[in-house]
């Protein structure tokens, strides 16, 4: 079993472009409330400004705000949200989406090669990749030890590529039962395996539990890009792996069904993935 996360530095995205993205992300979260309300989540949807994984009025909320948007495929975009994004930020987001998707596809191919998964199996899964962006904003908190910026969990997606925008520490991963700080590196992209890839690799690549803590004096921003098979694609352990291992560890389910179930639960470690185990 391979737990997989890394900080990617030689990724090919220009440093000046990342600076532009970081500036525009900061400006986006500094928009007046009147402008943000145009981008609010609609009832029953999770895209836009707001929160996710809320299942009870009595639930303790994380100390943060977020903006979520589907970026690929283009036909799945919420036009009422995209059309209201500030034009410079919309153009920057388009470029970043394309650049990061290319990186994700290279990584998927390399992971398949390492595990000797047939090339066409991985290509069929991620040819029509479902990509979404989640921008996280964690304001300063006078009592940071009393709150959590983002509850511990593993991502539902196949692969997450994260940019720690303003170099403020806060991301922690669980390693050997202990929480380890992922120190921000300038222009680095944090690559993290999610639950869907753990299913596809029949448990060979392990999804990583992580969380976000907050700072008493500084705000923190991050941009996460999630990459998964298309919504109607059936996710299951790769047949070429199952045939070699002589066992199948997970059930089959469409990507859309998997995410629908994920968002109806509170974040709680890898509890959602556990429901898929056979």
UniProtKB/TrEMBL annotation:
<keyword id="KW-0560">Oxidoreductase</keyword>
<dbReference type="Pfam" id="PF03171">
    <property type="entry name" value="2OG-FeII_Oxy"/>
</dbReference>
<dbReference type="InterPro" id="IPR044861">
    <property type="entry name" value="IPNS-like_FE2OG_OXY"/>
</dbReference>
<comment type="similarity">
    <text>Belongs to the iron/ascorbate-dependent oxidoreductase family.</text>
</comment>
<dbReference type="Pfam" id="PF14226">
    <property type="entry name" value="DIOX_N"/>
</dbReference>
<keyword id="KW-0479">Metal-binding</keyword>
<dbReference type="InterPro" id="IPR026992">
    <property type="entry name" value="DIOX_N"/>
</dbReference>
<protein>
    <submittedName>
        <fullName>2-oxoglutarate (2OG) and Fe(II)-dependent oxygenase superfamily protein</fullName>
    </submittedName>
</protein>
<keyword id="KW-0408">Iron</keyword>
<dbReference type="InterPro" id="IPR050295">
    <property type="entry name" value="Plant_2OG-oxidoreductases"/>
</dbReference>
<feature type="domain" description="Fe2OG dioxygenase">
    <location>
        <begin position="129"/>
        <end position="229"/>
    </location>
</feature>
<dbReference type="InterPro" id="IPR027443">
    <property type="entry name" value="IPNS-like_sf"/>
</dbReference>
<dbReference type="GO" id="GO:0016491">
    <property type="term" value="F:oxidoreductase activity"/>
</dbReference>
<dbReference type="GO" id="GO:0046872">
    <property type="term" value="F:metal ion binding"/>
</dbReference>
<dbReference type="InterPro" id="IPR005123">
    <property type="entry name" value="Oxoglu/Fe-dep_dioxygenase_dom"/>
</dbReference>
């Amino acid at each position: 079993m391979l737990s997989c996360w890394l900080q990617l530095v030689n990724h090919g995205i220009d440093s000046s472009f990342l600076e532009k993205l970081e500036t525009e992300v900061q400006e986006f979260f500094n928009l007046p409330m009147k402008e943000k309300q145009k981008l609010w989540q609609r009832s029953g949807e999770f895209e836009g400004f707001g929160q996710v994984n809320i299942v009870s009025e009595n639930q303790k909320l994380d100390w943060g705000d977020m903006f979520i948007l589907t970026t690929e495929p283009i036909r799945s975009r919420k036009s009422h949200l995209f059309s209201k994004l500030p034009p410079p930020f919309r153009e920057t987001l388009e470029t970043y989406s394309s650049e990061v998707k290319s990186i994700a596809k290279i990584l998927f191919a390399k992971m398949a090669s390492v595990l000797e998964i047939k090339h066409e199996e991985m290509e069929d899964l991620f040819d029509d990749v479902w990509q979404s962006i989640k921008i996280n904003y964690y304001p300063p908190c006078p009592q940071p030890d009393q709150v959590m910026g983002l509850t511990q969990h593993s991502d539902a997606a196949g692969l997450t590529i994260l940019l720690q925008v303003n170099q403020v520490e806060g991301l922690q991963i669980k390693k050997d039962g202990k929480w380890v700080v992922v120190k921000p590196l300038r222009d680095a992209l944090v690559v993290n395996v999610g639950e869907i890839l753990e299913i596809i690799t029949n448990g060979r690549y392990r999804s990583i539990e992580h969380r976000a803590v907050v700072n008493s004096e500084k705000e923190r921003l991050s941009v996460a890009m999630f990459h998964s098979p298309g919504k109607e694609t059936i996710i299951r352990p790769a047949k070429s792996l199952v045939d070699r291992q002589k066992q199948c560890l997970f059930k089959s389910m469409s990507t859309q069904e998997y995410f629908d179930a994920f968002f109806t639960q509170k974040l709680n470690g890898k509890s959602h993935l556990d429901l898929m185990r056979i």
